[in-house]
Design goal:
By secondary structure, the protein is of the alpha/beta class. The protein is built from 8 helices and 5 strands.
């Protein structure tokens, strides 16, 4: 019987370096593991269309609950089309965001009911959680400085207070589930971050 794969998610506020870490990990692991990378929202044709709608700065009329439902719809499609089949095939998945983003952004950031969002996460994922979540923790101002050259999307335009609430939410999630969510200092060098992340991933795989 083939061994089930391993699901790893990367979380953190905007500018924490998740996407860069994901690309570095994929490159580092490609020679020894059957690993795939995905992003949220996105990863499928349908989910990418939802992503475009969510991040478009012209869609500033999207209310918090609609936002959460759209993220859930994109995630549901991704889970059934990509994540579950890959895990059945024994692959390692590295996801740039997953269910914790909904609690952090729409819950602690937007102020939506946490219990409602937890129910929504269970519904759209069928209860599928990552085996390991790496939380890249960084001060919002430091995260902003990394993104100064980028054109901000709809969520990135929300400002420091929004990002500070999200960061606090992520740290609360870590306190609730420390066996799954591991905190990494995202202000350290890329080399240090990759080394620390790989150590945690190898421990999870073993």
């Amino acid at each position: 019987m083939q061994k089930r794969g391993t699901f790893i998610s990367l979380e953190g506020i905007d500018g924490s370096g998740k996407t860069t870490l994901k690309e570095n990990l994929l490159a580092l692991m490609a020679g020894n593991y059957h690993v795939i990378g995905i992003r949220e929202p996105g990863g499928t044709v349908i989910s990418e269309k939802i992503r475009d709608m969510l991040l478009d700065v012209h869609n500033d009329g999207i209310i918090g609950k609609t936002e959460a439902l759209l993220y859930a719809a994109a995630r549901s499609q991704l889970v059934e089309e990509i994540i579950r089949p890959a895990l059945i095939q024994g692959k390692i998945i590295i996801a740039d965001r997953y269910m914790d983003s909904t609690i952090a952004y729409q819950g602690y950031g937007r102020g939506l009911d946490i219990e409602f969002l937890e129910d929504l996460n269970r519904l759209c994922t069928g209860g599928l959680k990552p085996d390991l979540t790496l939380l890249l923790d960084i001060d919002p101002e430091a995260g902003q400085s990394r993104r100064n050259q980028d054109i901000p999307d709809r969520l990135e335009k929300e400002g420091f207070e929004f990002q500070a609430r999200i960061r606090a939410g992520y740290l609360k999630l870590c306190e609730k589930d420390p066996s799954r969510i591991k905190v990494l200092d995202a202000s350290q060098t890329a080399e240090q971050l990759i080394r620390e992340a790989m150590g945690m991933i190898e421990a999870a795989l073993s």
